[in-house]
Amino acid sequence: MRSLASSLRTLKQHAMSKSPTSNPPSSIVILVLGQTGAGKSYFINKLLAEAGSKHHVQVGEQQSSCTSDITPVTASGLTSKHPTSKGCPLVVVDTPGFDNTLVSDRDICDRVEVWLTESCRDGTVLGGIIYIYDISQDRPSAPARVNSNLQMLREVLRQPELMGKVVLVTSKWDRVMCGDLETKEKDLSSKHWAFVVKAGARIVRFEAKKEGASARSIVDSLLELLEQPADTMPLW
Q1: Which InterPro entries match (predicted)?
Q2: Are 15 and 125 in contact (CB under 8 A)?
Q3: How many CB atoms lie within 10 A of CB 117?
Q4: What pTM does this model have?
Q5: Is 96 helix (H, G, I), strand (E, B) or coil?
Q6: 88 with 79: CB under 8 angstroms?
Q7: Which domains does the chain possess?
Q8: Cα–Cα distance list, 224 to 58, 130, 182, 230 (Å)
Q9: At 101, is the secondary structure helix, strand, or coil?
């Protein structure tokens, strides 16, 4: 937990220090985090396909993680309708899932920190943190297992305007045999994750029937934050 906090503070050191309109970002980073099997790589691939990219990341078919390394992918075209970031490289970062069968959570955090330190340069902006959560999970402990990571995010980001860069994305809505998913969603919002929602984070569905458009809409909502005036834009 402490190591992941350190990773995020590393990215914080690369914040923009001037108005985005006078000094556009050199690159925008969006971290994709979540438990193993939640659909992080799948989400990224749908986003890339929606943008017309030929790139893709490997997707696992089992609950064991297939993503063992930090995998950054530059997505072209996703910033085209955002004046401030138009033409700016958008780097979507796939990460190994927590509760990983291959590496420990601490090792994952260490790898994120190393990648951020080596890859981020002056002018790099944290576009957002997307945390993917499998809404179809029937394990009673599932939300609680995520809470430690979310608690850390709240402690590191602190300000509500920074927590606004965190999107909790619920996935696998097509699994209708897994119980009342809408009730689960309400419980997450009003009970388990209320503390991060109150702090500024958002809970959004990864829509099963229009996955590409849904993924892009989520990323667009983060890029729109960069269009805010300099005195209100959440900088890092």
Answers
A1: G_AIG1 (IPR006703), P-loop_NTPase (IPR027417)
A2: yes
A3: 14
A4: 0.84
A5: coil
A6: yes
A7: 2-14+24-53+66-227 (3.40.50.300)
A8: 28, 15, 28, 13
A9: coil
Of the two residues 14 and 167, the one the predictor is more confident about is 167
Quick: pLDDT tens for 145-197: 677 777 766 766 666 667 788 999 999 998 866 668 888 899 999 988 888 88
Q: Pick left, alpha or beta for residue 158 (phi over 0 → left; psi -120 to 50 → alpha; otherwise beta).
A: left
Return d(Cα 27, Cα 6) in angstroms, integer. 21
Spatial contact of 32 and 92, defined as CB atoms under 8 Å apart? yes
Residue-wise pLDDT for 88-142, tens only, equals: 889 999 988 888 777 877 787 778 777 877 777 667 888 889 999 999 887 655 6
Pairing verdict, β 71-75 and 90-94: antiparallel
Burial class (CB in 10 A: 0-12, 13-18, 19+), 119: middle
Instruction: Specify the residue for token string 């030929």.
Output: 54
Q: Please write down the long-range contacts of 16-19, taking CB distance under 8 Å and 24 or more positions apart.
A: 16/123, 16/125, 16/235, 16/236, 17/235, 18/230, 19/230
Tell me which amino acid residue 222 is: L
